[in-house]
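Subject: Sanity check before I submit

Could someone independently write out the structure tokens for this chain? I want to compare against mine line by line before I put it in a report. The sequence has 255 residues.
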Amino acid sequence: MKKSILASLLLAGLLCFTAAPAQAQDEIETNPTYSQNQPPPKQDAVFVQVLFGSGFLGFFLWMALFGCFGFFLYLAIDCGILVRADKIMPAGLVANVENAMKEGDVVKALEFCKNEPTPMANILSAGFTHVEEGFDVIQEAISAASDLEIERIMQRLAWLSVAANIAPSLGLLGTVQGMIAAFANLGAGGTPDQGALAVNISQALWTTAGGLITSIPAVLCFYFYRGKANRLILKMEATTMELIKDLRNVEVVAE
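---
Independent answer below. Compare away.
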């Protein structure tokens, strides 16, 4: 009798021991509090949920970030095309003007500049058009034209700095918007919506990352192209003064 009771107790204990893990597993699969044991959602699915689940302001901020990134790509390509030696001071133009100046033919040199409009050609044209007014006037005209061309180049480069400053500001605004929504959700009565809270925090982090993804390469491109432009401008100014040095001997003819 005792043996049968003991056997029954052992069987019951064994059944409880084997049933407990199965019950716990069922709770893990059905209860969201055990989500740490479930495979995490894919990043692209999370991003899409953040993009369309952060409200009108959040969606507007994402469109602004995408637009800022596209603007940066356009500026990077544009500056890559603009800030080059063959675009600022083509070797062919320098050679043609140099040969014309050796021949003493200022009109021919001016024609070369008009046929190939570049920053250096515009600077030389400003000097050649005042050749009859003396070397001092030529230098003043070239200096004014040089300042104008340099300003045009730097204005194009300045837009990269604008993109680099706007992107993190948009990201910070998205971060603030996400945190405001998260604290509003926590401060609401009752149990906070964990899904909405996760979207709010993801919005804050993703927009910060989006702003930095645009800002960091924009800053690097700005300083890279600005340094390259400064080197080309110094070289252009030195070459220009070398080309017009023969105009020192030009005599001013009084009318």
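---
OP: Matches mine. For the report I'm noting this point. Residues 44-249 form one domain.
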